Amino acid sequence: MIEYIITVLLIAAIYALFSLGLNLEWGFTGLINFGHVAFFAIGAYTTVLLNLSGVPLLLSVIAGILLAGVCGGLLGIPTLKLRADYLAIVTIGFAEIIRFILLNEEWLTGGPMGVHGFSRPFQGLIQSDYNFFLLQVVLIVLVVCYLLLEKLIKSPWGRVLKSIREDEDVPTSLGKNVFYYKIQALVLGSMIAGLAGSLLAFYLQYINPRNFMPVETFYAWIAVVLGGSGNNRGTILGAIILWSFFSGTRFAQVYLPFSPTQMGALRILFIGLLLIIVMMFKPEGLLGKKEELTLEK
After folding, report:
1. What does the alpha-carbon distance between residue 36 and residue 40 come to, in Å, rounded to a whole number?
2. pTM of the entire structure?
3. CB 3.0 to 4.6 Å from 228: which of 35, 47, 61, 234, for a disulfide?
């Protein structure tokens, strides 16, 4: 049971980190990114492929983070002048392009068979349960990222992001370069997702394109909406609730007359109902504030 709890917390912490990147883009800046999983995948694959090529693990992780950020910036240059649903469509398309590259370029990514055999941090030195050690590493990374984001959001830079979210004409009239602020938010959010991808690869020990399906992005959206858009603590809480529910309901199959496929669909149905209830009675999320609610105009 302890090992199971450690596993649940580990997955929840990784997805909480992944969701923090999306919260920076959407919750604080108002950017609708439905392709966030692309940067998750870029971070994971860059880390493991470089490591398998002989690059030290730390440098591989840094390269994965930087490449995710560069891709986010390059995507943002032509798309951040688009708004709302147009930006959302472009980011979905980008995520699918990345996934099909991973699926079809077998010479590089292993295709549908995926990649395995890469190193994990201090794996040779940890004699006890490695997942417990990895959980500690992930929690430290999560706390550091949370504290840095909180500091940034409370700084003048963060206040400009919030003003862009509310009405980008206001910061523009005050001489702020809104486009560059959006690029910065997208790059930083992508880098956080890339870091989460590296940590996911260390946990799984084997990655393939199915780990980076479009639904992964919407898990991050569920965490942000459930916990509270524009609230980093809420995002972390939302991720913990989401993955605790996913993990806990696995035991329900023993008592219900459903196949594994039907049970999976039922769990998604319950998550949808939970979101509807939250939106009806507390639309700002569990820890969110009503003044943080926004839709990009």
Report:
1. 7
2. 0.93
3. 234
